[in-house]
Amino acid sequence: KQWYQRRVRGISLGIVRSLEKRTGVTDVKLLDRKPADPARILDWEEEHVCKLPDDIKNFYITTDGLLLCWSVKFNGSVTPLGRMEVNPLANLKRITIPHCNKHGATQSVTVADTDSDDEDSRRRPKFSQIDKAFEIDACCSHGKVCLVYEIGGTGGPKIWFLDRAVRWHFLAHSFMEYFRLMVMHLGLPQWQYAFTDIGLSPMSKQWFNLYAPVRLAIDDEQLGRKQSDTDADIVVADKNLSIGKIDIDRLFKLTNDKNRDKPAKKKPQPPASPQTSNQKLTSNRPSLAHLASKRAGR
What we know:
With 298 residues, the protein is an alpha+beta fold. The protein contains eleven helices and eleven strands.
């Protein structure tokens, strides 16, 4: 237990120091929480009739939950960005997912509501297979990270992500594995979606490119994703894995230079109109007054 406590404290303080060294990061705050009373953990297990894994017990004995927030300086203002949170023991509550039928009555979600025939859905737990699920993190309302107990499951409860479409996505085999994932992703917005078929939003990808590009590349490689051909970003292969934009000004400058090097073509002269030709012939003929003056002179 003492080793575990030192490890959790070391990871927490280590990520604080790491964030404070990053460009643009400010207001790194780690909320100091007291350890949970072991008697409260026993009361929780008796109330919910299930046994917490040892790694979660040791975590709560070390600190009753976790909240680490950090911001960035952007366009002269401070914007909240990263958030790493584990609910305190009092908020480790069982989730219920209400569902209204066609008559408006509330009922439990059935297998038919969440099942599909695709291969990925077969790996997800069905609601009929879940014995209990407890919320670890509300994820700022874009989903829920849950400790899931499956009926007949082996190896203890797992950590799953429940998105807003009420679909389950696997995150980790244990709480400590999930804790490390959360820290490695720096608590960036919606980082859990990197482990879904939905993927990260464009805005989240931009933040990952700035603060966790290596982690983003690892997630894409592990999930077998390929960069979209229509992506406007070009990955620059340097040690920082920085992202470069297409230089539109340079692109058009090169096009103009090419056009400037080509010899200018002479424009063909338009054919003379009949009216113009008659005007030229008329102007070349001598007038009647001129002929009469010549005859008088003779």
